[in-house]
Amino acid sequence: MIEPERFKSPAYLRVLDDQISELSAFIGKSVEQVMRKAAESGYPNEACGLLVGRLDDQGWHVDAAYEVRNINEDRSADRFLLDPEGYQRVDQSVRGTGQEIIGVFHSHPDCPAKPSPTDLGHAWESFLYPIVSVDRGVVHEIAYWTLNANGDRFQSVSVRML
Fold first, then answer.
1. How much is the mean pLDDT over the chain?
2. Distance of CA 124 to CAs 3, 83, 119, 154, Å?
3. Backbone phi, then psi, for 63, in 5-degree steps?
4. 89-139 pLDDT, tens per residue?
């Protein structure tokens, strides 16, 4: 995949922290399958969804991923906006289960699996952010990110597949 020039610009480089998160992501293969399927079927637009599980002192234990409709009608090729009704459905389904929404995934069509300044502007503290790079309709890479302690940059997250 050819990396667009904007990903090499100072604005994009400023969103990345050189430090790797001390926490890890524990991901099941079925979770990655949901993200891959959503990203490929949504191509050439961004796909998005929610991660459900729990966060502890080791990291994010992701038990499920749910695709949520991208309702961004103006720039769906390079922006996403989670459907609030979809968010509510997932949130209500996990109430009382001991699980919660712990992250948001989205795809980058024909772009690397690196966060953008837009991603940083919408990120929430303590959430896990997988980004799925899709090259010509096929998943190229999935990278995992979280905000650093200051909340001003993304740190990469190590993944342990279950």
1. 97
2. 26, 17, 10, 11
3. -95, -25
4. 999 999 999 999 999 999 999 999 999 999 999 999 999 999 999 999 999
DSSP tag of 123? -
Residue 12: inside a domain: no
- Residue 44 belongs to a domain with what CATH number? 3.40.140.10
- Indicate if the alpha-carbon torsion angle 68, 81, 15, 101 is positive or negative: negative
Please compute the mean of the pLDDT values over residues 51-76 and round it to a whole number: 97
Token pair 């234990």: residue:
61
User: Is there a contact between 53 and 64 (Cβ–Cβ < 8 Å)?
Assistant: yes
Cross-strand partners of 156: 20, 145
pLDDT in tens, 37-62: 999 999 999 999 999 999 999 999 99
Catalytic residue numbers read 46
Please report whether residue 5 resides in a domain: no
**pLDDT-derived band at 1, boundaries 50, 70, 90:** confident
Does a structural domain hold residue 59? yes
CB atoms within 10 A of CB 87: 16
In terms of residue numbers, what domain contains 92? 24-123+136-161
Give exposure, 43-76, as e/b (b: 16+ Cβ within 10 Å): bebbbbbbbbbebeeebbbbbbbbbbebebeeeb
